[in-house]
């Protein structure tokens, strides 16, 4: 584990760390904010999964989470969105390959060699930070994410009952099996068998009986991807039919950018903090 | 005036605008945040001058000012730090040339052709935004800045008595005539006559009788430039001798980065807002 930076920020420590990942067989970089409360005792952990084209750096620079995390005593973990580096498969377009790992373990060649972000974010990374940062209370976790990372947060939480007390998402892809981004990525990474896709589709998981204890989703009303890629109405219907409580808000005028994420970040973190206490 | 982007953020509008500058004879790009209160009436304006190597984008992405500005009803204006583009003089090193305009009107060739940031930030830009955005209350202005931009904020305020109700700075260069960054830049831009430098040296201006109504400065205790380039003790001594009230704080452990700026941004904006009411 190589600490690339460790900077005092809002009273806490903003770390950026690179390590050799077993899951992806590449170096991986993530950021971790430790609030000031971590100096004195255990703190809950919020994991944030980023969207297409992003690295750990987008939310670390533009997410505006540190002030709230410092006030609320939350640690904030932000992994990369795909493996990177020499020899890692890539393709034309920003919706597949580098920056577009979709939080799955690819089964198809050439992706299966490195695109194992599911194993990375569900197993390897939490085990690493738990071992290296004893101040993290791994019994008090929440998860959130943006766009493709909202998809990641929802599916990771739905498939790990008991691990997360709350899950939220900013403009998530809720039904990748039914939208162009997801259909393209899953075809390449998981192959043509659509049954295999259901394990990575939040709407399908809820239809199949998976539940989370608390679920909050915000989408921007002026998000250009709303109708074609995000389709929050599919999540709303699935939750309604399943009796899964969902706090869904459409925020008029907001787009898909970090201006939207940062505007509602404080709300989401306060909501998680209530459930993590 | 070309509006590059106009995005809803924290309830207000984050604009990025490019225009042809008469002062610099180049296109110039700036960002302007209009808080939600600007929809209903006049709002005070805080101008933020950035540091070496920066454009408008650094503080716009990483300054974390929008939440506070939206709460307090402040507009926030962030110009670039130098002219840019084809034919604009540059030199080796990041402490002179592009990104290093030092908020002066250069008198020496080749810099004098475009490096006229003093005229740009004191005359042209305020006139432009006042004309284009009637919601800005130009009678209620404050100014702040970071590093080289802290130098800019101090000197602009000291030489425009009555224009700014308050001036603050994050890790400012307070005495450019006495430190390597300033000596290098002023030699190139203003020539060898050190008397001409005094008009752009906050400590010299205070020694010469200039005053501001309210002055607040924060510096990071772990700032690597503290002892050699920033030298806040020189400002402290000049203010003490001159009877200029100064609220100076050294923040233990903070560096020179936007982690420092963003941590104390909310404090500075609240302090300005009190004086702008």
UniProtKB/TrEMBL annotation, chains A, B:
<dbReference type="InterPro" id="IPR000801">
    <property type="entry name" value="Esterase-like"/>
</dbReference>
<comment type="similarity">
    <text>Belongs to the esterase D family.</text>
</comment>
<dbReference type="GO" id="GO:0016787">
    <property type="term" value="F:hydrolase activity"/>
</dbReference>
<comment type="function">
    <text>Serine hydrolase involved in the detoxification of formaldehyde.</text>
</comment>
<protein>
    <recommendedName>
        <fullName>S-formylglutathione hydrolase</fullName>
        <ecNumber>3.1.2.12</ecNumber>
    </recommendedName>
</protein>
<keyword id="KW-0378">Hydrolase</keyword>
<dbReference type="Pfam" id="PF00756">
    <property type="entry name" value="Esterase"/>
</dbReference>
<dbReference type="InterPro" id="IPR014186">
    <property type="entry name" value="S-formylglutathione_hydrol"/>
</dbReference>
<dbReference type="InterPro" id="IPR029058">
    <property type="entry name" value="AB_hydrolase_fold"/>
</dbReference>
<keyword id="KW-0719">Serine esterase</keyword>
